[in-house]
Amino acid sequence: MNRPSMQTVPGLGRALLAGLALAVLSGCATTSSSTGTNPEDPWEGFNRGVFAFNDTLDRYALKPVAQGYRFVTPDPVQTGVGNFFSNLGEIRTTLNSLLQGKGANAGASTGRFLINSTVGVLGLFDVASHMDLTAREEDFGQTLAVWGVDSGPYLVLPLLGPSTLRDTGGLPVDMYTYPVTYVEDDTVRYSLRGLQAIDARAGLLDQEDLIRGDRYSFIRDSWLQRRRFEVSDGELGEDPFASDGFDLEGTDFDDAFAE
């Protein structure tokens, strides 16, 4: 099932995805849960406070709604909803791929959008993937990285969750390159963004048991590692969470996320 990533949830929809949901739950690579000082996180005191707020919002608001959504919504419908929002993100990927000089990726993303928007009935069916037509997701934060802008310190944004100074600077561009932003009817626009956030959160529920040790450090380190993987187009090595051969022992979850 295709789920909206962090980069495909703009504006209010991104705001509803709290920091916890946006970080490790997006399929991030494994990392240490050590509580040692991370040089990429010089504002850790501030970030931990914001993280606690976001975590509380997720635990008592977004997560219960997402659990209810998954309980009452048939799997094919959830798949279609996720495909629809992912398809809209292809426009952002095309534009940023062009800005980064990645013509092949821009062409693949454009092809995916055209095929899924037509044959795939407005993106509800991911026909392009069945045709082995894939593209790497790109956002303006990644474009800034290609242009030589340093990531800057790690930053946890209120409501928006994990980011860096560079990625925070790219948020306005990401928002205005996402089609839902231009839906004129406020009710429809906010409903779409709310559904997108809930559907994305529901798709992350099964991965929560991966959290262990110090929650803040684990999520921070996982998010930063995953972000480096995205910016470098996977040149850091294979993502172990994407491998069918990745195994974990039951004892690895002794300190897992507690309900």
Automatic annotation (TrEMBL):
Keywords of the record, alphabetical order, are: Lipoprotein, Signal
How is this protein annotated for GO cellular component?
A: membrane
Belongs to which family? Belongs to the MlaA family.
Signal sequence extent? 1-23
The record's PROSITE patterns line, in alphabetical order, gives: PROKAR_LIPOPROTEIN (PS51257)
Q: Which Pfam families match?
A: MlaA
Q: What is this protein called?
A: Phospholipid-binding lipoprotein MlaA
Keyword Lipoprotein listed: yes
**Species this chain originates from:** Halomonas caseinilytica
Which InterPro entries would you find in this protein's record? MlaA
Q: Which GO terms describe its biological process?
A: intermembrane phospholipid transfer
